[in-house]
Amino acid sequence: MSLIFVIIGSIITILLAIPLLFFAANSQGAFYGILFALPLSCLFSAGIVIYYYLHGGTSASYLWYGLPWLLCLITAIALPK
Asked: For the segment 2-47, what is each residue's pLDDT rounded down to a tens digit?
């Protein structure tokens, strides 16, 4: 794992939390209880990647950056039409 990719990926993932908060609020997030779940998933995935970097993880740890995108996609699909 490269330090520069961990830093850039973590910054981008943390910055993604702001639009995801607005997305969750506009998609009736308070009703579904996901208002803070999407932004917290960004912090969680960045933290997991940093943890794996510090403890000698493999490049497969970068897949954790996809967690917020996956949750956002599931939320968008599951919204009532």
From this structure: 899 999 999 999 999 999 888 877 776 556 667 788 889 999 999 9
What span, in angstroms and rounded, lies between the C-alpha atoms of 36 and 22? 10
pLDDT confidence of residue 70: 92
The answer to pTM > 0.85 is no
Number of folded domains in the chain?
1
Q: Which structural domain, as residue segments, surrounds residue 33?
A: 3-78
CB-CB neighbours of 47 under 10 Å: 14
Separation CA 44–CA 31 (nearest Å):
22
31-43 exposure pattern, b = at least 16 Cβ within 10 A, e = fewer: eeebbebbbbbbe
